[in-house]
Design brief:
The complex is a heterodimer of chains A (about 325) and B (about 325). Chain A has 11 helices and 12 strands. In chain A, α4 crosses α6 (about 160-170) and α6 packs parallel to α7. Chain A has about 325 residues and is α/β, with parallel strands linked by helices. Chain B has a single domain, classed as 3-Layer(aba) Sandwich (Rossmann fold). Classes of the chains: A alpha/beta (about 325), B alpha/beta (about 325). The interface of A and B includes residues 195, 217 and 273 of A.
C-alpha cells in the first residue's frame, strides 16, 4: 500500500440554512483513504456518514446545504473548489458511488443495459455495439447469470440482490480509483449480503480499487474494512485499524456502541441485559461547543462541555476525547 | 413446561392470485404452508427467516389479520381460527401486535396518549376514568413521561415511538404479543434500550412473545426457543442453547455463517455460501424446498419432501441428510 493517500478529507464542514438558522451536519471531518484500501465509516443515523459521502462528490443538495469549510483532496486536487465540469468528470469515473436502496437508485423506465451504457457513453465515449458488449461483460463480472438476456431487463424484473449487482456493475464501469458504498446491503437478506460482500472484495482485489464503506453494522466493518472511522455528531471521534478499534476501543462512544450489540458468537449463555447508551443523538440545531457526546458519556469531565477535544494518537489510533488526552488508553 | 398460551397446528395461508386465463385458476401463493408451533407463558419463540419466507403472513394469520386457509390456532385453550364477532373480540384482548416500522404504525394526527388509549376504547375495556389511569400507568411502564401524552408522533424519536407502540400493545393486558421486527428500524444504541424494555416487561407481566426477526444476534438475545422458516415452512426448531451451539439444518448453518460478527470470530473462509436468491412462494420447488440452493443436496432431496422429525430433545429438523 502506498503512503500517499488517494483521498484526504480535511476539516470538512457542511451546513444547511433555514429560517431557524444554520444546522451544522458536518463539523470538521478528517479522513484519509490509501489506494487499494477499504475504509469503513460507522455511526448512528444522523451522525453524518452519508453526508460525508455526498460532500466528497459535491452532491450535497444546494441550496439549502453548502460545504462551509475544509478540503477534499483527491489525488492532490481539491474537489471543493474544482469547476463544475471537472467534478462531473470525477463523478462516476474516478470516484463512483453505490447507494443503499437498489430499487430507487435505478430508473424504472429504462432497461438496466441502457443505464449501464449511459455511464459508459458519458465517460468513455463508448456507444452502440461496443458499449453493449462492454455492459454485458460487466454484468458477467458482477455474477449475473445469463447477462446477455438481463441486459434488456427492467429493474422490476430483478431481485434486490440482482439490482444491487447491477448498481455495482454501473459503479465499476469506468474502473474508478475509489468506490463509495453507502449501506450497500442494508435492504438485502443476510445470505445475499454475504454474496455482495464477496463480490466487492473480489472486484477490489482484482482492480486494486480503494473503497469507502458506510454502514451502521459493526459486523460488516469487522468483515471487510482495513481501517474504520467512527462518526458521531458530524465528527470522526475515533479512527484506526479495524482490529484495534473493535478489540480495544478507546473512545467512550465506540465502547458503548460495541457493547450494545448482541453477538451470536458470544459464548456466554447468561441473558444479561444489553448495555445501553442513554439519551439521544444531539440535534443538528444545537450549536456545539464541547464534545458532541458529552451529554451521553459516562466518563464526562467539566472540560468536555467547554471545548471540543482534538484528535490525538492514543494506542496506535486517533481518538478525540479529553479522557484520553494524556495519551494513555 | 407450563401450559401453552398459543398453539398453532398445521397452519396454512395461501393467497389467491388473479388469473389472466379464464379457463384455469392461477396457482396460489403458498406463503405459509403447514406450520406447527407452540409458546408457553412467559416464553419467547424467536422466528427467523429471510424476507418473503412467510414470517409476517404467519404472524398476521395468528392474530386473525389475514384469512387462514387451513389449520388451527389455539389461544389460551380456545380455538380461534373460526372465531367471529364477540368471540373474536375476546380473543383480541389477549393478543397484540408490535409493528416493525415505528413511523408508519402511528397515526400522525392522533396524540400519543389517545393512541395508547385506543385499544381500550375499541375493545370496550374499563370506564373513562379507568382508561385514563391505565394510559398513565402504561406511559410510566415503558419509560415515557406523563406530559408526553399530549404530544403528536412526529415529536418523538424512533425509539420513543416504538415505546408508544409497546404501550399500545400492553393496554388490554394481553397474554401474547407478536413482535414483528420491533427493532430492525432502530439504531443499535436505541435497539438495546428497546430489547431490554421488552425483556423486563416479559419478566414482570409473564408475557409470551412471538418474536420475528431476521437478525440472529437479536434472536439469540431474546429467545427461549428458535424456529427457522424457509419458504412457508419451519425447517428447524430447537431450544436456544441447542440451536446456537449445534444447528443441524444446512439452511440454519448457512444463515448463521452469513452473519458478519464484530468480534472477528468466524472468518469468511469457514463459511457456507448460498448461491442464488430465495425462491418465490409462487413456484415452490419439488421435494425439499431448500434443495436448489443447498450446498449438500443429493438427488433424493429434490424428489421427496423431508418430514419435520425429532433429532434430539425438543430439536426438530426437516432434512433428509440429518438423522
Amino acid at each position: 500500500m502506498g503512503d500517499a493517500p488517494l483521498l484526504a478529507v480535511e476539516g470538512l464542514c457542511v451546513e444547511f440554512r433555514s429560517r431557524r438558522g444554520a444546522a451544522r451536519v458536518l463539523n470538521g471531518v478528517d479522513l484519509s483513504v490509501k489506494p487499494g484500501e477499504t475504509l469503513g465509516i460507522v455511526g448512528e443515523s444522523g451522525s453524518g456518514k452519508s453526508m460525508t459521502a455526498l460532500a466528497i462528490l459535491r452532491l450535497v443538495p444546494s441550496p439549502p446545504g453548502r460545504i462551509s469549510g475544509g478540503r477534499v483532496l483527491f489525488a492532490g486536487e481539491d474537489l471543493v473548489t474544482a469547476s463544475d465540469s471537472r467534478i462531473r468528470d470525477v463523478r462516476g469515473n474516478k470516484i463512483s458511488m453505490i447507494f443503499q436502496e437498489p430499487m430507487t437508485s435505478l430508473n424504472p423506465v429504462f432497461t438496466v443495459g441502457a443505464q449501464i451504457c449511459e455511464t459508459l457513453g458519458r465517460h468513455t465515449g463508448l456507444k452502440g455495439r461496443p458499449a453493449r458488449e462492454r455492459a454485458i461483460a460487466l454484468l458477467q463480472d458482477v455474477g449475473i447469470p445469463a447477462p446477455a438476456q438481463r441486459f434488456d431487463a427492467y429493474p422490476h424484473q430483478l431481485s434486490g440482490g440482482m439490482r444491487q449487482r447491477v448498481m455495482i456493475a454501473m459503479a465499476i464501469a469506468c474502473e474508478p480509483a475509489l468506490l463509495i458504498a453507502d449501506e450497500p446491503t442494508t435492504a438485502l437478506d443476510v445470505t445475499v449480503q454475504a454474496q455482495i460482500f464477496d463480490l466487492l472484495r473480489e472486484i477490489q482485489a482484482r482492480r486494486g480499487m480503494a473503497m469507502i464503506l458506510i454502514t451502521h453494522d459493526m459486523g460488516v466493518i469487522a468483515e471487510i474494512a482495513d481501517r474504520v472511522a467512527v462518526m458521531y455528531g458530524g465528527r470522526v471521534v475515533e479512527e484506526g485499524t479495524t482490529r484495534d478499534v473493535l478489540d480495544r476501543p478507546v473512545h467512550p462512544y465506540t465502547r458503548g456502541l460495541i457493547a450494545c450489540i448482541p453477538d451470536i458468537r458470544d459464548d456466554t449463555d447468561a441473558r444479561a441485559p444489553l448495555s445501553e447508551i442513554p439519551g439521544l443523538v444531539p440535534s443538528v440545531w444545537d450549536l456545539q461547543r464541547g464534545c458532541p457526546f458529552a451529554d451521553r458519556c459516562s466518563e464526562v469531565l467539566p472540560q468536555c462541555r467547554a471545548e471540543m477535544p482534538l484528535h490525538r494518537l492514543v494506542d496506535g489510533r486517533k481518538a478525540a476525547c479529553w479522557q484520553r488526552a494524556g495519551g494513555e488508553a | 413446561m407450563t401450559a401453552s398460551v398459543l398453539q398453532v397446528r398445521d397452519l396454512k395461508v395461501h393467497y389467491q392470485r388473479r388469473s389472466f386465463n379464464p379457463f384455469a385458476a392461477a396457482p396460489p401463493v403458498r406463503a405459509v404452508d403447514g406450520v406447527t408451533l407452540s409458546i408457553a407463558r412467559g416464553q419467547t419463540l424467536g422466528l427467523v427467516g429471510e424476507s418473503g419466507c412467510g414470517k409476517t403472513s404467519l404472524a398476521r394469520a395468528i392474530l386473525r389479520l389475514n384469512a387462514i386457509t387451513g389449520g388451527q390456532v389455539i389461544l389460551n385453550d380456545r380455538a380461534i381460527e373460526g372465531a367471529r364477532g364477540t368471540e373474536l373480540r375476546a380473543a383480541r384482548r389477549q393478543m397484540q401486535y408490535i409493528f416493525q416500522d415505528p413511523y408508519s404504525s402511528l397515526n400522525p394526527r392522533v396524540r400519543a396518549g389517545d393512541i395508547v388509549r385506543s385499544p381500550l376504547e375499541v375493545l370496550e375495556i374499563g370506564t373513562a376514568e379507568e382508561r385514563r389511569q391505565r394510559v398513565s400507568e402504561l406511559f410510566a411502564a415503558v419509560g415515557l413521561r406523563p406530559e408526553q401524552q399530549a404530544l403528536f408522533p412526529h415529536q418523538f424519536s424512533g425509539g420513543q415511538r416504538q415505546r408508544i407502540n409497546i404501550a399500545r400493545a400492553l393496554a388490554p393486558r394481553p397474554s401474547l404479543i407478536v413482535c414483528d421486527e420491533p427493532v430492525s428500524a432502530l439504531d443499535v444504541a436505541i435497539r438495546a434500550q428497546i430489547l431490554n424494555l421488552l425483556t423486563r416487561l416479559q419478566k414482570d407481566l409473564g408475557l409470551a412473545y412471538l418474536f420475528i426477526s431476521h437478525d440472529m444476534g437479536v434472536i439469540k438475545h431474546v429467545s427461549d426457543t428458535v424456529a427457522v422458516m424457509y419458504l412457508g415452512q419451519i425447517v428447524e426448531q430447537a431450544p436456544r442453547s441447542t440451536f446456537f451451539s449445534a444447528p443441524r439444518h444446512p439452511y440454519s448453518i448457512a444463515l448463521m455463517s452469513a452473519i458478519p460478527s464484530a468480534s472477528g470470530r468466524g472468518r469468511p473462509a469457514e463459511r457456507i455460501r448460498l448461491r442464488g436468491d430465495p425462491p418465490s412462494p409462487m413456484a415452490i420447488p419439488p421435494g425439499c424446498r431448500f434443495a436448489p440452493r443447498c450446498p449438500m443436496a443429493t438427488a433424493a432431496c429434490s424428489q421427496s419432501v423431508p418430514p419435520l422429525k425429532e433429532v434430539g430433545a425438543e430439536h426438530l429438523v426437516s432434512c433428509h441428510l440429518v438423522s
